[in-house]
Amino acid sequence: MAPPRVVVLVSGSGTNLQALLDAVAEGRLCCEIAAVVSNRPDARGLERAKRAQVAALVVETVDGESRVDYDTRLASAVREFEPDLVVLAGFMRVLSSLFLDHFEVINLHPALPGTFVGTRSIERAFDQWQAGEIERSGVMVHWVPDEGVDNGPVIASAEVRFVDGDTLAAFEARMHEAEHELIVSAVHHVLAERTSTTTRSDPREPQREAFV
Question: What are the φ/ψ torsions at residue 100 (nearest 5 degrees)?
């Protein structure tokens, strides 16, 4: 049986993509990274894909193009690789139903469920810690069943606590380390459950429980 096919969408440096590529190369993750797609031609994640001999594709936005039109083009490009799963690993666009209706999609977000939705999550968490408002943050992987932002059913989460004397750089490094571990574990979990005889007909339904 051929391994499941995964397409990864990135917008930036692609360190979480690299964690997936390394896990596949080392045999810790049984899947094929079929392609890496970015909305930015200068995304370093594309170079990581090329070094791993994975197809790297840019679907760049066009001036004046609507969100619907872009997502239609993106869906058409991704569909060519016949993915069993699409992973958003630092993809800095909110996808519309015109894309989401075609694929099973999961997203990695550097915050715990229900907290720090949107951009600059790590910085905002650090600011709240400095203000004495929180003692921990974390990362999660969740399903993206609709156009909601960082609020889909949670697949996995991991806590990252602040420590005395923390700096933003040190906290950010621990957050990224947690992201790299969690994205591999979550993809493995999703793909294993997908092939299980006990998999639900719709794996994105909200009854899914998180694991850490």
Answer: -65, -30
